[in-house]
Specification:
This protein is of the alpha/beta class. The protein is built from 14 helices and 12 strands. The protein has helices at 19-26, 30-33, 50-66, 89-99, 110-119, 160-170, 188-201, 214-227, 238-242, 244-253, 263-267, 278-293, 315-320, 327-332, and strands spanning 41-46, 76-81, 103-107, 125-129, 149-153, 176-181, 205-210, 231-234, 258-260, 272-275, 310-314, 335-337. Helix 11 (263-267) links the parallel strand 9 and strand 10. Helix 3 (50-66) packs across helix 12 and helix 6 (160-170) runs parallel beside helix 7. The longest helix is centred in the N-terminal third of the chain and has 17 residues, at 50-66. The termini are close together.
Length: 338
Amino acid sequence: MRRREFIALVGGLAGSWSPTVLAQQTGIPRGAAAQPADGPLVGFLNGASPDTYRFNADSFREGLAQAGFVEGRNVRIEERWANGNYEALPALAAELVAKGVVAIAATGDVASARAAQGASRTVPVVFTIGADPVRFGLVASLNRPGGHVTGVSLLFSVLAAKRIELLHELAPKVSRIALLMNPSNPNAAAEQADAHAGARTLGLETLVLNARNPREVDSAFEELLQAKADAFITATDPIMLDRRDQIVSFAEQHMLPAVYFVRQFAAAGGLLSYGPSITWMYRQAGVYVGQILKGASPAEMPVMQPTQFEFVLNLKTAKALGLEIPPNFLARADEVIE
């Protein structure tokens, strides 16, 4: 079964990059905007690791190409990866600005976006986050950001309760659900509150397990076993996606139902995922950076949001867990992995 296609929210692209247009539209001084003949320099900032997040960086490049900018031909890309250390993001963003980038794709989540926003008052920033950018001071409003920052928001936090609901529907005997959270993520509290509220509605117990890095993921799982949780959901966080093989392997080893936030977990053997397409998000970030290179102003570029969500079920994993799949549950899945 094929997953739903996402509706493109970006209109036609016109014009071509020039230092003069870029300086006029973004406020970057003309001299800073001037770039070598092989094209403008764009920064790519992410809190995770290139070893496991490369597919997202590739999607970003696809978006740039869609906008008419191909690396090595008419655009250059400078990457910086925090490898799970969110505290390193401000310094990495400052490095990109010092390199002379004309725009930064601050990808991953709020921590990356804030780091890029604070690194310069003029260099345009295109974020990819799973939270409300207004709440975190990234933009003035979704329709008119008003500054040098815009991007793509998936508003993931409002989906935690929905994931609890799907878990309960598929595994009704589950009574205690662990929430694997990264407390370093600025959006963690909102997502955690949404999960708690959803669980209370269904009469389920929740407990929070914190993990800021791969070592702490292992420690959190030890706590999960000691607390005798019988299922878990993962936070919407780059580190969690970065460690998807580790997390899915633990669930498989201990026969635990789990719900994740993007398709890549289900593809790796996870039971179920529900959320927007992360590859769509990165692709649209590339398109938006391309528009900025053509002269668009971030202040006037609305924050993009997805119009549909992917519900992916790994049927093989469900059978291994001994779960009976209701026909109507199976019919609602956008993709079934067998």
